[in-house]
Amino acid sequence: MANGRMAIRMAAVLALVLAMVVGNPALSGACACGAFVANDKLDAVQETALVELTGRTESITLAVQARSEATQAAFLMPVPARARFEMADGELFAELDRISRPDVEVRRVTVDGEGGAPPGSAPGATVVDHVEIGPYEVAQLAGSDATAVTQWLGDNDFTLPTALGGALAPYLAEGWLVVAVRLAPTSGSLASGLPPMRLTFETDTPVYPMRLSATAERRQPLRLYVLADHRTDVSNPAPEGAAPELTFAGEVRPDPQYPTLSAALTGPRFLTRYDAELSPELITDDIRFTRSATDEPHRELVIVTEYVRSPWPDPAVLLILTALALAAGAVVIVRRRSAKRDAPTKP
So which residues are the signal peptide here (predicted)? Predict the structure, then answer.
């Protein structure tokens, strides 16, 4: 009896986790680490993530600023092993931004003019965990193939676009799980972004999932922080395009100025930051992490050019005025000499 009640409860909870608005076809949008399905158009404006590497344990803290009026949405993220889900403090990314902020050099240029899964679901699909935290309800789904997982999601009113369902296949073939998160924003829409979330799992090969982003419709902006024992190199998920750009590398220690980050530090660690804007059609792999050959610090230098209005007239005007002044001076000199020659001689 207890097992029956548990099965009924799990079925009800997971149906709620993945339910979309009945009668409204879901719209999809991919971000760099996963994918959204929403009841209104959703555009990722900026995705920011912190990857923490400690031995075999990897944690991904994720914040997505989205431009959307959607009131219901779900988020999918493949992970290589069963994950622990938690809420995260958004202040973390504000602190990381202050720590890694580029140096700014202002150069002034003078110009002329103005400047300026329940029992009985599809075979091969199994719900391995569920949790309710804050505004999120989360299910972790394991499947032997993409068809079974896609069917399970469809049976729970979670409509996956064909391309996105196909993009899950390589992950499932490698034995990964799919984390499905129901987003219930308290603001009534997703216009103000998503509350930061944190996933922790075990892995022998640190990775930031990217392959689902190949199904996106527009370029994917990403800011990726890596916190590890040493400076970290990242692979390029879009080999035919520009690689993520290193913008900061340096040691961080517990500091009262950064209380949120300091709470996660037991001693000095190395923070590396990369920024990228990736073309979906070029994405073929995940981001993978390796130790850099050096722990040399790095901070990006941003040169800001300010155009200011010149206090002097246009150069052409200056040349004309100078020529006129010289001509006028020459006339005065000639007249003075003529006056001296014409002057009467004293007896």
Answer: 1-28
